[in-house]
Write a structure and sequence with these properties.
This protein is of the alpha/beta class. The protein has 9 helices and 8 strands. Strands 5-4-1-6-7-8 form a 6-stranded parallel beta sheet, sandwiched between helices. β4, α5 and β5 form a beta-alpha-beta unit. α4 runs parallel beside α9.
């Protein structure tokens, strides 16, 4: 039985496409790299920004640090609110919490941004713990974020050892969510309405896949 459910944020609870892609562009252009087609930048939704700037733009580590700083400059001002909550999310969270599920957020987004975004959409109260990365660059890998969430829920150790980890599920839309969940020793539900897609999530080893928020609600309620 799933007693604790951890949710990714971007691409799972909200659609941050406009804000993230505009901020990614802003960070790129500050270093002289131009990509006018924001559709090509949706790959930045979910993974750590440093990693994506280096992979996509060929930036050095120092250049990627500068790009991330510029990204956050715009994100703080307006990017975090260029965002939309997926239809049905609030109802799903209420239903799950009312049924006794314990809910949390585990996101690679800095925690100082994740909290106000969830408050902006008035869904922060559904979560016992909201866990993200640090602006310093610590706890960026999804596995480390999930492990920190488990620690805050007082669930530690190895799965199946009677420590409660067998009652925890992760929900996310990218392979990083699935891989991170496996590293932390918990199963993962992949959502196909986000940005990863069936091939990516299946290839990473997602335990279950759903296509809509309604399907997700029904699945999580039954776990």
């Amino acid at each position: 039985m799933a007693e604790i459910i951890l949710f990714d944020l971007d691409g799972t609870l909200t659609d941050p496409k406009e804000g993230i892609t505009r901020c990614v562009q802003y960070g790129m252009e500050a270093l002289g790299y131009h990509e006018p087609d924001r559709e090509k930048l949706t790959s930045f939704i979910g993974p750590p920004l440093m990693e994506m700037y280096m992979e996509t733009c060929g930036f050095t580590e120092d250049e990627a640090v500068q790009a991330v700083e510029k990204y956050r400059e715009r994100f703080r001002e307006k990017g975090m609110y260029e965002n939309e909550i997926y239809e049905g999310i609030a109802d799903m969270l209420k239903t799950l919490k009312d049924s006794g599920k314990r809910l949390g957020v585990a996101t690679s987004k800095p925690e100082v941004f994740a909290v106000p975004i969830l408050k902006y959409f008035r869904i922060d109260s559904y979560f016992e713990h909201i866990v993200g990365s640090e602006l310093s660059g610590e706890r960026v890998r999804k596995g480390d974020v999930i492990k920190e969430a488990l620690r805050r829920f007082c669930v530690e150790g190895k799965a199946g050892a009677g420590d409660g980890k067998e009652a925890v599920w992760m929900v996310g839309d990218r392979k990083h969510d699935v891989i991170g969940a496996r590293e932390a020793g918990v199963p993962c539900v992949g959502v196909l309405y986000g940005y990863g897609g069936c091939e990516e999530l299946s290839g990473a080893g997602a335990d279950k896949l759903v296509s809509t928020v309604e399907e997700l609600k029904e699945l999580l309620a039954a776990l």
